[in-house]
Amino acid sequence: MKLITFLSDFGLNSSYVSQMKGVALSITDIKIIDISHEITPHNIREGAFVLRASIPFFPVGSVHVAVVDPGVGTERRGIVITTPSQILVGPDNGLLIPAARYLGDFTIYEITNTKLMLNSVSNTFHGRDIFSPIAAHILNGVLFEHIGPIITDFVDLDFGNFEITDNSVMGKIVYIDGFGNIITNIDGLKLRNVLDFDKKVTIFIGKRKLQTQFVKSYNFVKKSEMLATIGSSNLFEIAINQGNAAKKLGVKPDDDIKILFS
Asked: In this predicted model, what pLDDT tens digit does every residue of 27-62 receive, in sequence order?
């Protein structure tokens, strides 16, 4: 099965998404899945997190086109990243790197072959004119060497480091989801090695200090109560059962977080 996914900050009230899909469908017969088009405009880190959280659940051979591209039309490069299982296409601004790194060893090709682009390339819409046709040509069997040269000086992006000890953990907020759940960069499996469910934890987050319960899921506390858990991306998160933790605490991505426990 030929499969292309699309992720962007375009929203759904314009024709931009449909134009990208139309280009891809005019080149090859494919199945298309939208990851999201509601990334906060120009927020590369948010787009990178959503892409990284999504790609583990797609089949081998999927091609992912991601476009959160405030540098479109400048000297920033377009790239294709090959990994052991999936392929990523988009701008060289860090957007694709966390997903590529998760998938294993990767190789990056700069997109330079104009024959694989649309005949007329806009200065403001490379998602349609470059990335979508490149993705479609890849699924038609074009060799990566024909796309452009291998590069190693790519723009990197990561979600920071976390540190776990026997009684504490330090990390960062990386994402606020649509429910207001506060998702961190702290690996849940590693945290579970030192912290059991149903324990009380003290959390320093933003300018606030709070005490709450570390539980298996949201409904293990009463409605409107704060909680800490490990979410579906296997990352430590803070939430309110049927409420908005991020709004209540006034925090944002990149804020530091520290958790104490015994």
From this structure: 999 999 999 999 999 999 999 999 999 999 999 999
The CATH code that applies to domain 3-151 is 3.40.50.10790
Concatenating the DSSP letter of every residue in 124-174 gives S-HIIIIIHHHHHHHHTT--GGGT--EES-PPP------EE-SSEEEEEEE
Q: What is the DSSP string of 4-48?
A: EEEEES--SSSSHHHHHHHHHHHHS--EEEEEES-SPTT-HHHHH
The CATH number of the domain covering residues in 163-260: 2.40.30.90
Q: Does residue 1 surpass a pLDDT of 90?
A: no
What is the C-alpha end-to-end distance of the chain, expressed in Å?
50
Domain coordinates in residue numbering, the chain: 3-151, 163-260
| 262 has a pLDDT exceeding 90 | no
Kindly give, in sequence order, each residue whose CB lies less than 8 Å from that of residue 69, ignoring residues fewer than 6 positions away: 76, 90, 91, 93, 95, 126, 127
3-state secondary structure of 78: strand
The C-alpha atoms of residue 69 and residue 83 are separated, in whole angstroms, by: 22
CA pair distance 93, 91, nearest whole angstrom: 6
